[in-house]
């Protein structure tokens, strides 16, 4: 599958909804039988349980941004690298590099395999300037 505007649009809609705190709109980007797998807990989450995770993300972080996005098409979707930047309720900025492998079915996401080093956060200058090319705290660089 080449990266089409529909494929790109669905992931942009999902992350845009999470930035706005609109969990229902983020869930609407998923197929009814979607699977979201996190590398840190190695558990397969369904649409409902990931919605609960996203509600906690919104509740725990006053602001959320997904920046420094790089995508590469795959036969059934794409791989995306990005940095998730957040502001805590106390105003602290944190960021994590992430990689997601996304499978798209029709105009919705059927599967996300998410890889994040939860201990490898770093402190960006602001929510917009975080770069995955920066060296995260506690991580190795090449």
TrEMBL record:
Pfam families: SnoaL_2 (PF12680). The lineage of its organism: Bacteria, Bacillati, Actinomycetota, Actinomycetes, Mycobacteriales. Residues 12-112 form the SnoaL-like domain. It comes from Nocardia bovistercoris. InterPro entries: NTF2-like_dom_sf (IPR032710), SnoaL-like (IPR037401). This is Nuclear transport factor 2 family protein.
